[in-house]
Amino acid sequence: MRFCWFLSLASFSSVSLAATAADWRGKSIYQVFTDRFSLTSTGSTDACDVTKNEYCGGTWKGVQSRLDYIQGMGFTAIWISPITLQVPGGYHGYYQTDLYHLNDHFGTADDLKSLAADLKSRGMYLMVDVVPNHMGWPGCPDTVDFSQLHPFNDASYYHPYCPLNNYDNQTEAEVCWLGDCNTEMPDLKTEDATVAAGMQDWIKSLVSNYSIDGLRMDSVKDVNKDFFPGFCSAAGVFCMGEVADGRADYAYAYQDYMDSILDYPMYFSINRTFQQQSDMSDLKYNLELSKNGGTGGSKDNTLLGTFIENHDNPRFPWSTDDMSLVKNAIAFTILSDGIPIIYQGQEQHLAGADDPGCREAIWPTGYNTSTPLYGHIAYINQMRNFAQSQSSSYLTYKNWVTNYTADTIMMRKDIVRTILTNQGESGGSYSLTTEGMGFESGETVVEVFTCDKYTADTNGEVKVQMSGGLPRVLFSESILLEGFGMCVLSSR
């Protein structure tokens, strides 16, 4: 009889007063879209029509009440929506009007502090979304009353109005305004010393007041790069920027100015590979590129935010309901290089389309912990947390491709060996001999999804049973026994 030991995942992490990039490298992040995650009340029947683009009632108290649900999946950090005061209807948090006042739709200062304290008691980190690029105004650009925006209450703090029409023009991206006559977004003159200093004063106080461990910075490509070193230094915590661009050389260059970025180049590659079932050479190429510190590569891909869903893009199941494909994509997200990020609702297999469709409320699901993907995510997070507890080099060991075909890829990241496929649920049952996995001759190897055991041949390879297009993850049995980890014999 075999069974899996589910470890206390939070025990692998400790919270420091100022969380560094090295501290964040080992975290696994659950993205909370605050207004749509959990109501303060325990009821789960309140309607939320995403097409109305209005508040649905999620709060910080609601988030705190569901931390067991989040931690049950093995997450060691959460990322919440921007917390500042908004224009009416700014449910997402990106239309701020006052940096020094909180969004009372989400709760009070005490509510936010209580959430932060609860996270700390669990050994978890708090990442807060911030918006350094712009403020918000409920109308056309020629109606903006700058005196109503705080603390930047004069037109001199903003770029003169011009519509942002061409994202490929860097100057236009940095100085022109996002928005329309429903909600305009006055573009802050972040290259101005007074504005930069004001932003630094604000972020320093925000981090201190609410015990924030990390920042997700919105619309980074719309801000001059030189702004970020001073801003992040003032914050004194880990900074991850949103560079929503699939060009690796363009996106990764921003890591010279901040700790990390959301890995959009890899996001597009993962989705092409597992949603569209493109050739595995796409994933291999982008994985190799991301870890290349030279031209086109990232400075440190072990700090990049790896994801396949968020609040701005269609959900993975919107394109395919094949459960095997999404399980492979999630396995890559969590077990490859980088800091894994899972967006709320992935565990419930939500299938919303592009914004606003991907911003569904979670409470109608009843926070079901018995769904296939809730357990899948929890188990793979367990693997990652277990691996870093057993090997001090696991997190910085760069994942490398040992072999690949058109529909299958084999990878090794230190003590974790992964086999992924995009055959989908129609994939048949067959034996696959590994290549380059580096086991010892005669060593017993355990595949931890099935708990099947294999013996490595004289070349250190094993013949793994594949079935139904599902992922496979291999560990040395000796490591599992030493760590009381997964698939340990009950006699142990």
From TrEMBL:
Residues 1-18 form the signal peptide. InterPro entries: A-amylase-like, A_amylase_C_dom, GH, GH13_cat_dom, Glyco_hydro_b. GO terms for biological process: carbohydrate catabolic process. One of its GO terms (molecular function) is calcium ion binding. It catalyses: Endohydrolysis of (1->4)-alpha-D-glucosidic linkages in polysaccharides containing three or more (1->4)-alpha-linked D-glucose units. The record marks D312 as: Transition state stabilizer. It comes from the Eukaryota. Pfam families: A_amylase_dom_C, Alpha-amylase. Residues 31-384 form the Glycosyl hydrolase family 13 catalytic domain. Keywords: Calcium, Carbohydrate metabolism, Disulfide bond, Glycoprotein, Glycosidase, Hydrolase, Metal-binding, Signal. Its EC number is 3.2.1.1. Substrate binds at H134, R216, G246, D312, R359. The keyword Membrane does not apply. SMART domains: Aamy. SUPFAM superfamilies: (Trans)glycosidases (SSF51445), Glycosyl hydrolase domain (SSF51011). Its cofactor is Ca(2+). Disulfide bonds join C48-C56, C162-C176, C451-C487. The active site is at D218, E242. Belongs to the glycosyl hydrolase 13 family. This is alpha-amylase. The lineage of its organism: Eukaryota, Fungi, Dikarya, Ascomycota, Pezizomycotina.
